[in-house]
Design brief:
By secondary structure, the chain is mostly helical. The protein contains 15 helices and no strands. The chain binds fe (ii) ion (2 copies). The site of one fe (ii) ion has 5 residues, from loops.
Length: 287
């Protein structure tokens, strides 16, 4: 890739983005319906069952121990009647992420399940932190946490060929973060590309800003959603749920906890909860 300007590389990446399918229309419609005060579950069921893959993922996820339903459910309508709106929204987005993230990202050294599990685990971690922190409207946070690494899909096509270069640069300059090395080699990073993808998919600004900010030490302090997304991602990495070759090459600012509004005493119970729920999801999805 040497010899090309950074803007040419960005152009190539965004050209590739056009070939990534739209966020599932089923999910967009369902998420719009979930914004209403009184959600008509029959209407919601009609929309979701349209997409067999999302429906299958939804039922697998909802029946995992992570969501603690009192009994096994076989239909969407049964599931909806036992869940809160935020849980439905969470599981719906989680069901869609499989479509994009349940594939190998060779450049980042990730197998298919790892990427999906990392994203699901980050979503669960964000949920655990937000609940303890008393966040009243966490829906944008769930979306950002579940989709924060979506840019890796597009960049992976480029990272794969350049991974040796990135590793070499980090070896020679140990102070560089993985993102700085990504920039030096690729002229872009997965946070910027992911945010652009979500903007094109018409997600709220709060969501794509948090994705843009999740590795940027100053941007991640600008909104609570961004701070919580970055914190959830960091803790997920520390738990060891599949972040691949870039896992330790990031930095977090000292005041991230206060920007996220999270008490230090809430970290350990959140980590334990997210760990157990992630294991439950893994068992439900892949055993
Ligand atoms: Fe990331
Ligand atoms: Fe991540």
């Amino acid at each position: 890739m040497s010899g090309q300007g950074a803007s040419a590389i960005l152009d190539q990446i965004f050209e590739k983005l056009d070939h990534i399918p739209n966020f599932p229309e089923t999910a967009q419609k369902a998420l719009r319906l979930l914004q209403q005060e009184d959600v008509d579950f029959r209407e919601l069921e009609k929309i979701v069952r349209h997409d067999a893959a999302i429906t299958a993922n939804f039922l697998k996820l909802v029946n995992s121990a992570a969501f603690g339903l009192p009994r096994k459910v076989n239909t969407l309508i049964q599931a909806f009647s036992l869940l809160g709106i935020n849980q439905i929204r969470f599981i719906l987005i989680a069901s869609c992420t499989g479509k994009y993230l349940n594939r190998p990202l060779k450049g980042y050294g990730l197998t298919p399940h790892e990427v999906w599990i990392h994203s699901l685990s980050c979503g669960l971690m964000a949920e655990a932190l937000a609940r303890r922190a008393g966040l009243s409207r966490p829906e944008n946070l769930f979306t950002a946490a579940l989709l924060h690494d979506i840019g890796k899909i597009a960049l992976d096509l480029f990272v794969e060929g350049e991974l040796e270069n990135i590793r070499d640069i980090i070896k020679k300059n140990p102070d560089l973060t993985f993102m700085q090395a990504e920039w030096m080699v690729l002229g872009a990073d997965h946070a910027i590309v992911g945010a652009e993808l979500l903007r094109r998919w018409e997600f709220p600004k709060e969501v794509y800003f948090a994705v843009r900010a999740h590795h940027d030490e100053s941007l991640m302090l600008q909104t609570r959603t961004a701070a919580l997304t970055a914190l959830a991602n960091t803790l997920t990495n520390l738990m060891g749920f599949g972040a691949g070759t870039d896992v330790f090459a990031y930095e977090i600012p000292d005041n991230l906890l206060s920007a996220a509004g999270v008490a230090e005493t809430d970290l350990f119970p959140s980590i334990v909860e997210a760990f157990e729920k992630t294991e439950a999801l893994k068992a439900a999805l892949f055993s």
